[in-house]
Amino acid sequence: MKIALSLISTLLVSTSAFASAELAEKKGCVACHAADSKRIGPSYKDVAAKYAGNKEVVATLAAKVVKGGGGVWGTIPMPANTQVTAAEAKTLVQWILTAN
């Protein structure tokens, strides 16, 4: 029973990670961000490291994904991403914060 639950849990996490990577690709995030290297914007790993342990940041970062923002990672602002819904932004941010 424990093995079955462990396997199901692993599959759900893997599927979720794949789905979020696919969502990042679909929504154009990868034009400016990469998993482990800086492009125009910071890498997902750098974002995860900066906000590690901060559970309050999901809503703030999700709003920045949709509305845009600037000043945190340098002079280049992040443009608004109106093609990303609030729910999608939350999913993306939660996924990015697990990058390591």
Features:
100 residues; mainly alpha; Cytochrome Bc1 Complex, Chain D, domain 2
Tell me about this structure.
- With 100 residues, the chain is mostly helical.
- The chain has one domain: Orthogonal Bundle (Cytochrome Bc1 Complex, Chain D, domain 2).
- It is 54% helix and 0% strand.
- The protein has helices spanning 2-26, 44-50, 57-67, 86-96.
- Helix 1 (2-26) crosses helix 4 (86-96) and helix 3 packs across helix 4.
- The protein starts with a helix and ends with a helix.
Write out the CATH superfamily name. Cytochrome c-like domain
The first-level CATH class is given as Mainly Alpha
Tell me, what's the shape?
globular
Total count of strands:
0
Total tally of structural domains: 1
Low-pLDDT residue spans: 4-15
Task: Determine Rg (CA atoms, Å).
Answer: 14 Å
Mean pLDDT level: 86
Helix proportion: 40-55%
Could you tell me the CATH topology label. Answer: Cytochrome Bc1 Complex, Chain D, domain 2
Number of helices: 4
Largest sheet: none
Q: Quickly give the CATH architecture.
A: Orthogonal Bundle
Structural class: mainly alpha
Spell the H/E element sequence.
Answer: HHHH
How far is the first residue's CA from the last residue's CA?
30 Å
Percent in strands: under 5%
Short description:
This protein has 100 residues and is an all-alpha fold. It contains four helices and no strands. It has one domain: Orthogonal Bundle (Cytochrome Bc1 Complex, Chain D, domain 2), CATH 1.10.760.10.
SSE layout and pairings?
Blueprint: H1 2-26, H2 44-50, H3 57-67, H4 86-96
